[in-house]
Amino acid sequence: MAPTAQPETLTPLLRDRESVMVYDRSHVLGPDTLRAILEAARWSPSAGNSQPWGFIVGLRGDDTHAAMVEVLSSANQVWAPSASAIILTLHQVATDEDHELAYSDYAMFDLGQAVAHITVQARSMGLQVRQFGGFDHGAATERFAVPPHWAVTTGIALGLPAGPDDDGEMPDWVLARARLPRSRLPLEAFVHSGKFGHPADFLTD
Amino acid sequence: MAPTAQPETLTPLLRDRESVMVYDRSHVLGPDTLRAILEAARWSPSAGNSQPWGFIVGLRGDDTHAAMVEVLSSANQVWAPSASAIILTLHQVATDEDHELAYSDYAMFDLGQAVAHITVQARSMGLQVRQFGGFDHGAATERFAVPPHWAVTTGIALGLPAGPDDDGEMPDWVLARARLPRSRLPLEAFVHSGKFGHPADFLTD
């Protein structure tokens, strides 16, 4: 993977996070590693402890994984199967008669938090993830029999990054995209004080 | 703070995260610390790099903070001001004529991720956060002149946890709530494979 500009102030688990597109195709995720990564989601905070998240896990080589690859966008079909796992994320969109927990307006927000915790835990174990939205949500809902009070939301590719001399048998467009420099808006664009649009005082003092 | 049951498999920045209610009222957040914490949000991933997040930052003692405390629910007014900062989070809910980035369906999800990154960075600096939704969103929108294409979403109290012998001058109900044991659904309830509702094979093998 190409070097990327990252602020040195961040803690290493965040500083060294990258949305990796080229994974080691020989790496296998063991059950203990998977459990630890999903425990990170489990202990994520949520509104009123609603825990409005779900994960369908496909491991390279199993039937769930094969079914997931079928519903990916054609671009994502090229690189995502190189990862050891593909995880589809879900959030609760309505109450369930059998479920004690009511629907929370913050379900998608809390799913995002849980996925970030997955990312951090994976990083602590030498792994990386790349998230994506490019798949046929309707086909995934049907294939995995997702009930109406849940919504398939995003995909996560999870695996061990390929080594520097391993192109992962990827076409040039994937390798080029994986090397794109990262960019972000400056803090002044989104950190306010006093009122919206006024950069926070501590940024300009 | 009371001891809490946490899985030992998690990386320390996640394992030792707690939604702390009692903070050190003498702690002041310096600009370098604040910047690093907000850089964590800045470098968070988002759909198409849409970066659909915003933060209004109030520091204990400044006018923004005082205005925030006024719009908090009465329960949150009791404990949240003990933290060194209160941050209101926003996500983009529509396109902006002046903004190059289109609205993303994943804005709330991505805000959740950015807030999780804030939490992890804060933890790496010895700080904790507690998130809350209990405040007058309409009053906050008005007070901070939030434009219609943004939505005030959640609140974050950020600070240094009070020491074990410091009750933070909190009433008994806060101290009792802060000591409540944490609970979560088992992994089998939300980690599926094959189809929704079927616990992932690696959990039962």
Structural summary, described in words:
Two copies of one chain form a homodimer. Helices cover 33% and strands 19% of the residues of chain A. The first copy, chain A, is an alpha+beta fold and 205 residues long. Chain A has one domain: NADH Oxidase, CATH 3.40.109.10. The first copy, chain A, has a four-stranded antiparallel beta sheet, sandwiched between helices. The radius of gyration of chain A is 19 Å and the shape is globular. The first copy, chain A, starts with 11 loop residues before the first helix and ends with a helix. The mean pLDDT of chain A is 93. Chains A and B meet through helix 1, helix 2, strand 1, helix 5 and strand 4 of A and helix 1, helix 2, strand 1, helix 5 and strand 4 of B.
Overall SS class of chain A: alpha+beta
Q: What gross morphology of chain A would you assign?
A: globular
Tally of extended strands of chain A? 6
Which two chains touch over the largest interface? A-B, 81 and 81 residues
With strands numbered from the N-terminus, the spatial order across the biggest sheet of chain A is 1-2-4-3
The CATH C-level name of chain A is Alpha Beta
Number of domains of chain A: 1
Rounded mean pLDDT of chain A is 93
Q: Predict the CATH topology of chain A.
A: NADH Oxidase
Number of helical segments with 4 or more residues of chain A = 8
The CATH homologous superfamily of chain A corresponds to NADH Oxidase
* Percentage of residues in strands of chain A: 15-25%
**Helix percentage range of chain A:** 25-40%
What is the CATH architecture assignment of chain A?
3-Layer(aba) Sandwich
Radius of gyration of chain A: 19 Å
Q: Note the gap between the termini of chain A.
A: 37 Å
Parts with pLDDT < 50 across at least 5 consecutive residues of chain A: none
